[in-house]
Each structure stands twice: as C-alpha cells, then as structure tokens.
C-alpha cells in the first residue's frame, strides 16, 4: 500500500483523466478499500481541489477550481508538452512567446534527467524559424472558441484582403490552423452560406449570442473544405491543372493554403488553386519544375500560350 502522501498524488493523477471514477475503481487502482478512498477525497477537498461527486452511481471527477492542481504527466506527455511549448514560443499566436518560455523553463527544471536529455537533444539540433505574417491575439482565439463551445452566434468586424471592413454575424463551427494562419469556419447568417474567415482579420463584438442549433458541417473533410476555401474561392481565377508527378511529390512543394492536390493515379495528380493574376498562376506552376497541363480557366490556357511563345522568342 502506498503511503498517504504518495496515494493522494496518485489519486489526483487518476482524477485528472477526463472520465468519472467509481469509488470501487479508485479503490482497486490504489489498492485500498472504498472508505479510504472517501477519506482521501475529503483530504483533497480540504487542500482546495474541487473533487465532484456525480449523481446516481457513486463517481468522482476533478472539477475546475480556484487553484491549479499539480500537473502529473507520464514520460511521453512531459516530452510532448516541452516540445509544444518550445514550438509555441515561435508560433502564430501573439503575446504568448514569453509565457511559453517561462513555462518551458519551469518544466525543464523538474524533468527527470532521462527526459531532460531527450528534450535538450531535440532542441540542440533544431532551428526554430519565427512565423511570418500576421499573428493572432489569444483573446480573439479564446472568444471564438468559447462561442463555438457555447453554441452562441458570433458578431465581429471583418477586414478583407483589400482592407475593407464589414460587420458579420456567424454561427461558428470550427477553428482551423494551417501552421501559418488561424481560420474560422462558420455559417454566415446574413449571406445564408458557409464561409471561411481569417482570425487575424476578425474583431469580435462581446457579448455573443443568442444560442443556435448547430448545422451539419459543410463537408465531412473540414481540412479539405478549408483548403478549397482559401485556395480558390476568394480569387478571380480558379485553376485546374494536372501535375505529371505523384500526389505525394506534389504535396511536398504545394502548401495546403496554396492549392488542393487530388491523386489521379500513381504518376499524376490534380492541382486546384486560384489567383487574381493569370501571370502569377502561370509562373507559380512553372516554378515547381513539374510537367503539367492546364485545363481551366480558358484565360489561363491562352495566357500560358502567349508566355510560352514569348519565352521561345527570347532564346531563338
């Protein structure tokens, strides 16, 4: 049997998992009787940890309280948190770089040497390149996430790529992160359709509300839906181009925020992308140095012919 202090830490660790525990299950894990479990639960409550008892069959879970309980992690979880904090220090959420480094410092101080060596080895051979482009206010992310959780309509001012500002009302569905930018996928109430918004261009209006009944998602594959929404829909020209290389080869060169890749067979794939400039599309695809065939739009086909002739004349 564990000593009382060690048993309380073990009990706290079990209660941190997202589930309800019956007294019998806890007793079995701790190798004590149910009465001892009840006494230990009372001790945790006395220490300020809000252990909640569920109705019906006796069960316990750790609720939210006024103080943060000790975070008990296994080896893999501790390494994952350390790597995540290091990544967050150079990420796309504004204002959390310093707090991420402070948290990482605290974690590394208490890591066992075997884990600290694993984390330090990875850091020693890794160069972190700060994220380019616009960053997101963490308060905005929190407000959007809360509206999704609570199923509240979200009103916000939105600045488009031209800098024009409009007022939007949406039923928020999901946040998405591409590695460079954060997006909100939601139902635009005024336009009666699904829309994708860049979160760094949003300024939420608080309070949110009223509540709404969630709609069926616009696509079972939300990542694919987002890629299509940010690569073709916002632009004047939507291009469909066959790349004569396997899809996995093309995926190494084409970011999901630039184009959507669909396999055709083992030797070719389809690229869907968009732009407001035909020249930008033509040059962008040519720079991949892949054999390709342009299918649409017709304006792009003609522009490629003109550019090909111009390049041929330049070396004749």
Structure characterization notes:
- A hairpin with a 4-residue loop joins strand 4 (165-177) and strand 5 (182-188).
- The strands form three sheets. A five-stranded antiparallel β-sheet has the order 6-5-4-3-7, sandwiched between helices. The protein has a four-stranded antiparallel β-sheet with strand order 9-10-8-11.
- It has helices spanning 4-15, 23-30, 34-46, 75-88, 97-110, 113-124, 138-150, 222-231, 247-251, 278-286, 298-314; strands at 51-54, 59-62, 154-159, 165-177, 182-188, 193-198, 202-205, 237-243, 259-265, 268-275, 292-296.
- It contains eleven helices and eleven strands.
- The protein is α+β, with helices and mostly antiparallel strands and 316 residues long.
- The chain starts with a helix and ends with a helix.
Quick tags:
four-stranded antiparallel beta sheet; 11 strands; elongated
Low-pLDDT stretches are none
The residue fraction in helices comes out at 40-55%
Helix and strand content put the structural class at: alpha+beta
Question: How much of the polypeptide forms β-strand, as a percent range?
Answer: 15-25%
Please provide the ordered H/E string of secondary-structure elements: HHHEEHHHHEEEEEHEHEEHEH
How are the strands ordered across the major sheet?
A: 6-5-4-3-7
First-to-last CA distance? 88 Å
Write the layout of secondary structure elements.
Layout: H1 4-15, H2 23-30, H3 34-46, E1 51-54, E2 59-62, H4 75-88, H5 97-110, H6 113-124, H7 138-150, E3 154-159, E4 165-177, E5 182-188, E6 193-198, E7 202-205, H8 222-231, E8 237-243, H9 247-251, E9 259-265, E10 268-275, H10 278-286, E11 292-296, H11 298-314
Antiparallel strand pairs: 1-2, 3-4, 3-7, 4-5, 5-6, 8-10, 8-11, 9-10
Helix pairs in contact: 1-3, 2-3, 4-5, 4-6, 10-11
């Amino acid at each position: 049997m564990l000593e009382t202090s060690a048993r309380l830490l073990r009990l706290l660790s079990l209660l941190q998992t997202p589930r309800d525990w019956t007294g019998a299950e806890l007793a079995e894990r701790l190798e004590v009787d149910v009465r001892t479990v009840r006494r230990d639960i009372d001790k945790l409550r006395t220490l300020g940890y809000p252990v909640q008892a569920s109705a019906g069959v006796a069960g316990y879970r750790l609720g939210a309280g006024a103080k943060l309980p000790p975070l008990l992690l296994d080896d893999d979880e501790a390494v994952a948190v350390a790597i995540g904090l290091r990544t967050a220090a150079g990420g796309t959420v504004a204002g959390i770089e310093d707090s991420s480094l402070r948290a990482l410092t605290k974690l590394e101080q208490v890591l066992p040497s075997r884990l600290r060596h694993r984390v330090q080895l990875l850091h020693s051979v890794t160069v972190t390149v700060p994220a380019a482009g616009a960053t997101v206010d963490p308060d905005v992310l929190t407000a959007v996430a809360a509206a999704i959780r609570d199923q509240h309509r979200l009103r916000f001012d939105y600045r488009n790529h031209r800098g024009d500002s409009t007022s939007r009302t949406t039923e928020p569905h999901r946040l998405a992160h591409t590695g460079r930018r954060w997006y909100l996928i939601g139902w635009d109430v005024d336009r009666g359709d699904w829309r994708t918004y860049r979160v760094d261009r949003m300024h939420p209006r608080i309070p949110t509300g009223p509540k709404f009944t969630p709609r069926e998602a616009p696509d079972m594959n939300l990542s694919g839906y987002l890629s299509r929404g940010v690569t073709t829909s916002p632009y004047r020209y939507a291009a469909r181009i066959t790349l004569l290389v396997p899809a996995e080869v093309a995926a190494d060169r084409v970011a999901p925020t630039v184009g959507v890749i669909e396999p055709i067979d083992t030797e070719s794939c389809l690229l869907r992308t968009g732009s407001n400039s035909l020249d930008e599309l033509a040059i962008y695809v040519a720079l991949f140095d892949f054999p390709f065939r342009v299918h649409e739009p017709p304006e792009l086909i003609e522009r490629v012919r003109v550019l090909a002739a111009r390049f041929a004349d330049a070396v004749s």
